[in-house]
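re: ur question from yesterday

yeah so i grabbed the chain u mentioned. its 82 aa long if i counted rite. heres the sequnce exactly as i have it in my notes:
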Amino acid sequence: MTLLIVDDEWYAVKGISQGVDWAQAGISTVLEAFSAKEAMAIMDRQSVDVLLCDIDMPENDGLTLSHWCTQRHPAVKIIFLT
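ran it thru and got these structure tokens back, copy pasting raw so excuse formatting
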């Protein structure tokens, strides 16, 4: 299972990606993005199962990303952080 963590704050992304034993939770791959635009590019290149996303980000926010994701990658499960 692949997880994509998206937040515009570097420390938030690193804290979440490195602070949890994702393998124990069944996550084999953890990807990181620091903007909605970067997340979209990643998701168009490779399969993502779970999107863990901040809502409040500059330019495209997490809600915009979730709408895009629902249309382009409907099987992805979305979890919001704020």
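noticed a couple things. The chain is about 40% helix and 25% strand. also The chain has a mean pLDDT of 95.
anyway ttyl
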